[in-house]
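Morning!

This is the sequence you dropped in the shared folder:
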Amino acid sequence: MRAATEAIIGRVTGSLANPSTLLLGRFDRRGHLRFTGRTHPLGMVQRRELAPLLSPPRLQRRGIVAHPWPQPLPASWSGQLDRPEPLRYVQVEPTVVAEIEVDTAFEHRRWRHRVWYVRPRLDLSVYDVPLLLGDEADPFWDAAAGA
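The structure's back. Tokens below.
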């Protein structure tokens, strides 16, 4: 069973000009961007649509980029159990919201299976994306909407 929801594009595989997959996240209650899943490979139309929206991360202080996820990403985080190799990625400024379709299997604060990218949600801020609450919570519950 699939459901539509939103997530923040936190990193990409490939390059900013030609992203292969998206690494997605949501903010937790403390405001930390947490990894929640990876998309299936993007089609050429999707890559062209996203490339102009992605930008490199801004330097926070003294030339350092604040980055909440390890580089490379552990294979177990991205669901690469068939090829348990760490996943290298490119950092992006986490300002773009993506509409995605997800399998409702959700555990350890991540979608168990890869998700399907639908489109960018330019009408939404990253703060409109539902919070990542925890394993016991419904990942589709939207606190802002109260539903």
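Headline: Residues 136-147 have pLDDT under 50 and may be disordered.

More detail when I'm at my desk.
O.
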